[in-house]
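Hey, I'm writing a tutorial for new members on how sequence and structure tokens pair up, and I'd like a real worked example in the thread rather than a made-up one. If someone can provide the structure for the chain below, I'll link this post from the tutorial.
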Amino acid sequence: MSVKSLTKSLAKHLHHHKKSEPDVYILSLPRTGSTLLAEVLNTDSRSKTASESFALNKDNTRLLRKYFDKDFIAERYVDISEAHFQLMLQYFILLSEGKTWNSYYWSDFFTPNHHLNTRRTIFKTHRVTYYFDDLLRNFKDDFGLYLIRHPVSHSLSRLNLGLSTYIDLYAEAKKIKVMLPPGAKAKIAQVNAGGSDLEKFVVSWCLENYIFIKKYQEDELPPNVFSVFYEDLVLNPEQTLKDICHKIKMEYKDKMLSIIDLPSSGIVHSTEETEKQIAAGNKNYLVNRWKESLTSLAEEQVEDILTSFGIKIYLD
């Protein structure tokens, strides 16, 4: 046994976890602020984190193969079989009960907010937004926080990091395909054929968030799922966090607010300038810096995309 494995094995014996309070699922796309929100909620002394439960690093992939066949493991989960969905539910249950440990649990082991005695799990997961409502309908005693960020701000962040779009995957997904208005289908084809990189990322944002946005706009979210806007979290953190804590039955503490003004310990992609602005408390920079690089033409293109999808949030 390696030193790393031995250390983890010994450390597990120090932990005591028995679920007696509602778990919290933070559901979002990458680059949305989910690490920040998870760190804030994890200041609760009764909580443990299960971050990136389906991430594809070496240790986590090894764990996933204990529960899923090789063909299941993917970047995003869309239109999986009912059998695989049931396995997904069981995997979350085992994580919730502390009967299995995904590799990211140890990323905060030496931080002040890693707790040895816990009663609830804070899940931060990016890959299952397509199933956010299905998951929380099965976990009726738990809570979901769907975190969303402005499409341009989010798209530029992903674009600058060289990340992928998922237009084709989500445009052909069964749940989404039947919902899309004709204008959206035409816009997808147009952007795919000759749109700018920004347009492609914005279309991908629309598709990846489409199930949530449609239900949010039509007031059809499951009763245990709540929307969280990144901009509110950054610009109005105290009231936003108090609202979140009230909804998920967690005690609000001032310590949560202090985390908002610190660079996340989980940041791996932020620029030096971004970390500097976070440390300086320049919240408007975090929320609005994308506007500096957006031309009038690009702004019109983004508005046209959102309109074609029937998306009203973030439109003035």
